[in-house]
Design a protein that fits this description.
Radius of gyration: 19 Å
Distance between the termini: 19 Å
Structural class: alpha+beta
Largest sheet: 4 strands, antiparallel
Number of strands: 10
Number of domains: 2
Number of helices: 9
């Protein structure tokens, strides 16, 4: 409890997720972009089309389905090189939405919220890991996707790999699916964060973590 209290007061802690480094909580500096509007447009279309799909930005695809056919999954995954699937209904049912913006506020119409709650409305988000890696490469990082507490381990291209890498937590990356956060917003903010904290890290063990 003392560690939690200190973290809330100082925005700094050690041992987060079992990692042996200091972690600093950093306030977002860039305005956020979201795709909730696109989600609600797909929900509306699904009432007549049954299944609606859209690439809301490069590497991120939404699907809203009111029925399921043999070709539905293929439609969702078409063109994805390394697809990572987020099943939002399953996350809701497993109470994995804790810590995220409530879906009841992202889905506009009360009747659609009710359909989602009873699984008559299925919402899926797919992120192309290969596209994320390409985007980060363009920002100067070689990125590896992991299934641990940190979804992304990013080393500066041409940098010293013995230095602690830039890390993106699983919870933060989950905002792309559960809060319909723009992937570009997340990546832009993430790669800016080490520059903003660099002065405080001089002479200290580095922990470039976005949580």
């Amino acid at each position: 409890m003392k560690k939690i209290s200190a973290y809330l007061v100082t925005d700094s802690t050690e041992g987060l997720y079992g990692m042996p480094w200091r972690v600093d909580r950093v306030e977002a500096n860039l305005p956020e972009a979201h795709h909730a509007e696109s989600l609600n447009e797909l929900i509306a279309r699904s009432k007549t089309e049954g299944v609606s799909v859209a690439d809301v930005e490069p590497g991120v695809r939404y699907m809203v389905a009111r029925h399921w056919e043999e070709t539905t999954l293929a439609l969702l995954m078409d063109g994805m090189v390394k697809p990572l699937l987020f099943e939002l209904n399953e996350a809701k049912n497993a109470a994995d939405w804790t810590g995220y913006y409530p879906f009841t506020l992202s889905i506009r119409a009360p009747s659609d919220v009710f359909d989602f709650l009873r699984d008559a409305l299925v919402v899926l988000v797919v992120v192309d890991i290969a596209r994320v890696q390409a985007l980060l490469r363009g920002k100067g990082y070689e990125a590896e996707f992991t299934k641990g507490a940190y979804s992304w381990v990013c080393h500066s291209i041409g940098g010293d790999h013995s230095v602690t890498p830039l890390l993106v937590s699983r919870h933060l990356f989950g905002r792309v699916a559960f809060e319909f956060l723009s992937l570009s917003t997340l990546l832009d903010e993430t790669v800016r964060m080490p520059e903003r904290k660099a002065a405080e890290w001089v002479g200290e063990p580095e922990m470039r973590a976005a949580t």
